[in-house]
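Course assignment 3, question 2. Fill in each field.
Student: A.L.
Task: Predict the tertiary structure for the chain below.
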Amino acid sequence: MASVHSDNNPLGKNSAYIDRYDPTLLFPISRGEGWKAVGIERETLPFDGEDIWNGYEISWLNPKGIPQVAMAEFRFPASSPFLIESKSFKLYLNSYNQTKFADKNVVAQQMAKDLSAAAGGEVTVSILALQHAFPAEPNSICIDDLDIEMDKYEMDPEVLKLAETEQTGEFEGALVSHLLKSNCPVTGQPDWGSIYIEYKGQRIDEKSLLTYIVSLRTHQDFHEQCVERTFWDIWTRCKPESLTVYARYVRRGGLDINPMRSSDVTRKAVNFRTVRQ
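Answer field:
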C-alpha cells in the first residue's frame, strides 16, 4: 500500500472535482505506521474501538435524475489495517453527486462495500435524514480551567502522573477537555476537537492530564493516531483498570472524524455532536 508521502496521495495537491461514481478515489493509509511509533503490534493491540466519520454533504440522483441530499454515518473498526485519507474520502463522496441510484439503501450498500475494501475491515454505513437528532454530549467533568503553566508544546507522556496526597484514591468517571488541537502530518493544517477520557482506577493528576493534552498542540499526526497515542500514554504511564479515550474533531470539508479507543472490547461509541460540530 502506498505511503502517506506517495505521489498518488491527493493531500496537498489540486484535485479535479469528479462527480461520477469512482471508488478508485479512496486513498488508504496503513495504521501500522502509527502503531510502530509506540511499539504496538497489530496482533496485540491494547485497545479496541472504532472511528466514526459523519458526512454532511451526501448527495446523489434518484432514477428520475432528481438530487437527493442526506447525511451519513460511517463506522470503521479500529483493528482494520488501513485508515482512509480524509481528502480522498471527500472526493469519493463527491463522485456520487451526478450518479443515479435506486434509493438510499443502494447508496449505503455501495459505500459500505467500497470503504470496507479500502480499509481492509467491515465498515458500516447509515444514511441519515437531514432532521436526524444526534444524542446529547455525555456528562463529563471539564478540566480546562485548571491552573497550569505551559512553556513548551511538544508531546511529552512523562508529564502524566498519578495524583498525590489529598487527591489520591479511586476514580471512576469521565473528564473532558475542549483544548485539543493537533496538526495534519502532511499539510500542517490545524485539527481542532474535544477529547473525552473515561477511566477507572487510581486517580490521575488532572493538571498533568491537561498539560499532556495541551502539549499535543503542535503534534503532527492523523486524528486516529493522536487518539491511539493518547490512550497508549495514559494506559502505560497511569495504568488504570479501564480506559476509554474518545475525540470529537471539528468538521473539515463536510466531514468530521471521531476516533474512540477503549480497553473494553464491547464498548460501542455513541455518535453525539459537540456544539462546535
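Instructor remarks: The beta strands are 28-30, 48-61, 67-77, 82-84, 124-128, 141-142, 170-183, 190-202, 242-249, 255-262. The longest strand covers residues 48-61.
Grade: pending
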